Amino acid sequence: MSLVLRNLQRAVPIRRAPLRKKMEIVRSILGVQKFDLGIICVDNKNIQHINRIYREKNIPTDVLSFPFHENIKAGELPQPDFQDDYNLGDIFLGVEYIFQQCKGHEDYYDILTVTATHGLCHLLGFTHSTEAEWQEMYQKEKQVLEELSRRTGTRLQPLSRGLF
């Protein structure tokens, strides 16, 4: 199915093609190409607004994920009954926040890819509320990013490293 990648901000110049290319590979690695996925790039003001409404945190953040399917066990794919339910959900990337957090030696598009991969893992039921959940999510991100790195010649590390 489709990957919809929208840029709804003007704070940071962004080329969608590099992110789209890498996220199509990530979708392939995870085996979720038959599911729709939305990735929406927003600025600090909008990600903060969404974060305040849905998480009661009045600060900008890097990524917020909104799954289409609820109560998925980590690592299990949804089993939709209807064609219209082949949807994973939406990932909001706080691209301005991500850009501000990038270190000088880091490639912005690599960090966007890592962050979007983290968000996609959330859509697939992974969380990091406890150390055990974090360990499971970290291992999945690591596995996906290692395979992506192998295919693209990059060296990507999970967003959740060092969380616990």
Automatic annotation (TrEMBL):
Its cofactor is Zn(2+). One of its GO terms (biological process) is rRNA processing. It comes from the Eukaryota. GO terms for molecular function: endonuclease activity; metal ion binding; metalloendopeptidase activity. InterPro entries: MetalPrtase_cat_dom_sf_prd, YbeY, YbeY_CS. Keywords: Endonuclease, Hydrolase, Metal-binding, Nuclease, Zinc. NCBIfam families: rRNA maturation RNase YbeY. Belongs to the endoribonuclease YbeY family. Single strand-specific metallo-endoribonuclease involved in rRNA maturation. This is Endoribonuclease YbeY. The gene is YBEY.
